[in-house]
């Protein structure tokens, strides 16, 4: 394991892991061992997140959160329970980081004069084209 994975982050204490038998590759090994890892994180019960962060997570990750406010991630890609656990944790932190990123504020801009002129010219051409289709006035 790398030194980074050995360091425990404060939020790790709030993560709960459940294991179960996984499907997929592995043959008899997969049938006998519990390699699938399910990571559960209760957003409402977290002591390390502020109310604003909790609201942002609930909004951004609403399709991944249960009615009870629990974020659930399941990993079963590896034959190793330890590797699946590490992968679930990495996935969790990446998801958390992406969801908590504050969106940049949009700076309103004006369209350039050339773009306005071009738009008006196109409108005028279109209007003339339509006028030419009408029967002549008598």
Features:
138 residues, disordered N terminus, Double Stranded RNA Binding Domain, alpha+beta
Query: What radius of gyration results from the CA coordinates?
Result: 28 Å
What is the SS-derived class? alpha+beta
By CATH, the architecture of the domain at 13-100 is named 2-Layer Sandwich
Shape: elongated
What's the total count of β strands? 3
Topology as a string of helices (H) and strands (E) = HEHEHEHH
CATH topology description of the domain at 13-100: Double Stranded RNA Binding Domain
Q: In the CATH hierarchy, what is the class of the domain at 13-100? A: Alpha Beta
Largest β sheet strand count, sense and barrel closure: 3 strands, antiparallel
What amount of the residues lies in strands? 5-15%
């Amino acid at each position: 394991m790398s030194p980074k994975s050995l360091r425990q982050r404060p939020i790790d204490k709030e993560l709960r892991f459940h294991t179960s038998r996984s499907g997929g590759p592995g043959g008899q090994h997969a049938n006998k061992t519990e390699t699938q890892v399910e990571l559960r994180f209760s957003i409402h019960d977290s002591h390390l997140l502020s109310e604003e962060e909790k609201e942002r997570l609930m909004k951004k990750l609403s399709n991944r959160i249960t009615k009870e406010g629990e974020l659930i991630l399941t990993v079963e890609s590896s034959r190793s329970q330890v590797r699946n656990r590490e992968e679930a944790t990495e996935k969790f932190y990446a998801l958390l980081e992406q969801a908590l990123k504050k969106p940049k504020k949009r700076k309103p801009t004006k369209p350039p004069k050339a773009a306005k002129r071009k738009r008006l010219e196109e409108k005028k051409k279109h209007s003339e084209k339509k006028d030419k289709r009408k029967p002549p006035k008598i």
